[in-house]
């Protein structure tokens, strides 16, 4: 079965491109452009991996991560955050919460792929 | 008898000329703003501010939101302020001695802790009781102070804000998420900018989701729709037109961005003014022109904030009464600038025009109806002449409102359905029959209240000097 | 009654205008929505068609020639441009470089070359953005961009400068920067933006540092611009400029010019530290006659690198006419650890401020 990845990012153009790339690498990818719908989608789609944009209008990435933590929607270790800024305080708070990794925009798609693999690859059969 | 007739005729002619002039200028302003918007639309997007999320290249901003008895909405409002798309900003919520649970709600929700940070006094205000911060929300600063009114709360916010630029916002209006970047572009273009305003639009009837506007639509009520037209005419094309002439006199209290040092230099918001937002802008003009320093006060034609307008007569009447008192107060305080060539276009055109077209127009309008009616009744003028008056006052007003709706459709295009445009144009006609006269009446009451209030204030002052 | 006719003509005229306006508004809104719907359909179609082609290009399955050949309409062309632009901004490395070559195709070049010579500001600006992104080398274009650096509208100057800075020729970059910085009406933020891009594009960091320093120390550069550039040095990591900056400061002090630039240098050296300046600042005559910015920079230095030797100066600055200078000076005096002595030496009207500083322990003293 394909590994499922959910992408929550309000920058649709970028997300579409990332989605295309991930699909090409054999993942089942869905994209949602805001935090509120994103949370619903996590419940329904039950992704193995979540790629979450930090800076979104409305509910932002950090709040989504906190909600996931509160309601125990998925393993926080399977979240990669994307962020356009380097704010060490914010990033530290996120690592404290337990997210797996963080990537600064703009990034190389290959870097993202490697990091996803690191989380998802050791799949026991 | 013939003398009376002649006088009445002359008065009528003057009233007609008055309306022709006022409406003509407004039409010209609207036309000017059309070309202004067309020419510069999207141009600001060239300042990509690509480093906006990553470095200290751009000025940090403080968002100051005064709150008074807003326990119902305060958490939602502050949450949306904390989620603006800009990395280097802080939110200063000033609790202006609320009598309800506003402060407690904030403390509980954000897990606020007392902070003993320094409280400098650059501008005066009522004493601050406590300052709170939150570890989890490093952007947030809550200031709890004794009640002193909106201007006073803003002053406290200005003192506590640590950044070069600040935004004054109404806690209950909804901001566009990229509002700071939009406004900052203006400061990037010309650094001598001291204040920037933006388009305030009617939120009633629009759908909001995820703290964002989702669907732009018209309010459902008569008064709401009237105001939708009014906001287009006065706050969109009116102000863009004034910006084009470089003589913007008002920046709405719902949202404005200011250079903090400039505001401190002129002494902050004026506590005893009812129209503190307009008064500050006027004082900035006054100060910088007097000092002969280069400065800019700008208006951007993009929507920056959505505000809930009152949809019942009583609240609306009170709001308009207050606005008119604020206008009277501001024009009176800065009367030195009026017809003073030292203040350029501002003193020679914008201010006198505000005096005529805004301040005393309710007097001219209401007495105009009476005099024309009377003159027609006694036969000093004939029906055609009365119709001429009606045309220059009311029908030209319709033309102006309709032009504004047209311009909205030509430039901003926020309404999605043709039916909304149809309703808007219908209300552009309707606005001028009934509501406009009622509005004039409210404003006249405001003017009367201003003079009454002003006398009381004067008496108090005399007592102060005597003792 | 000739007047009568004029009145009636006027009234009818206004009414006719009103009706015409109303009817045309309704027709216009209907038509506009129709057209928009049609265009949207076209653009969605174009997007669905073009996206796989763009991705194919990135995966090297398609080359530029084939890309051009596959374009069917201007909708395709526009849609592709929009998407390529966004992706370029959001990816790094090989993919980005490959996408940039896509912008070089004849169709885009021709189109934006025409826009560059347009009289509409927005079109010129868009063309500048294009030439910035694709990295232009065409002489004719560069000459035009150089002329646009003197455009009356600031956004155009900014965009043209960015385009020139984004070339591969360091001579072009340097002159473009010099020309931009020499202008009087730049905002600090746009200078920061441009200098930051210049720094990012440069190959040789040492040369960049020297060149920026030469601009700063050039007396014909507007003081405001020099100050803005100097303030970036710590972030850019130009530690090699510490000594030259100090020398420049002393030179400015001797000539008694450029207060704002002096303030910026003192602030930067405060961050990077310079022992000789630290000594010099003890001397009140060094700074007392300067305007607020210099005194403010000095008081911040004293607060940051407090020594007992600063005390006398700090007592002078604690009663400075400028409020922000006073509070920083008083904060520094907190470190004296002898509150009573301070209270005695300060005049009564300043005591309120001093007690407030004492209460807060100097936490978050105005950073401005």
- Large-scale geometry of chain C: extended
Helix content of chain C: over 70%
Give the averaged pLDDT of chain B, no decimals: 88
Class per helix and strand makeup of chain C: mainly alpha
Indicate the overall shape of chain B.
Answer: globular
Distance between the termini of chain B: 55 Å
Order of helices and strands of chain B: HEHEHEEEHEEHEEEHEHHEHHHHH
Structural class of chain B, by secondary structure, is alpha/beta
Sheet bearing the most strands of chain C, described?
none
- The count of β-strands of chain B is 12
Low-confidence stretches of chain C at least 5 residues in length (pLDDT < 50)? none
Alpha plus pi helix count of chain C: 22
Give a brief rundown of this model.
In chain A, 46% of the residues lie in helices and 19% in strands. Chain A has 125 residues and is an alpha/beta fold.
How does this model look, in words?
- The complex is a heterotrimer of chains A (125), B (467) and C (368).
- Chain A is an alpha/beta fold and 125 residues long.
- Chain A contains five helices and five strands; from the N terminus they run βαβαβαβαβα.
- In chain A, helix 2 (35-45) packs parallel to helix 3.
- Chain B is an alpha/beta fold and 467 residues long.
- Chain B has helices at residues 2-40, 74-82, 102-110, 150-160, 179-189, 222-244, 260-265, 276-290, 313-333, 344-359, 361-378, 383-410, 418-466; strands at residues 61-67, 89-96, 113-114, 128-133, 140-145, 165-169, 174-175, 193-202, 207-209, 212-215, 255-259, 296-307.
- In chain B, the strands form two sheets. A ten-stranded mixed β-sheet of chain B has the order 3-4-5-2-1-6-11-8-12-7, sandwiched between helices. In chain B, strands 9-10 form a two-stranded antiparallel sheet.
- In chain B, helix 1 (2-40) crosses helix 11, helix 6 (222-244) crosses helix 12 and helix 9 crosses helix 13 (418-466).
- Residues 455-467 of chain B have low confidence and may be disordered.
- Chain C is an all-alpha fold.
- Chain C is extended, with a radius of gyration of 30 Å.
- Chains in contact: A-B, A-C, B-C.
- At the B-C interface, helix 5, helix 12 and helix 13 of B face helix 1, helix 6, helix 8, helix 10 and helix 20 of C.
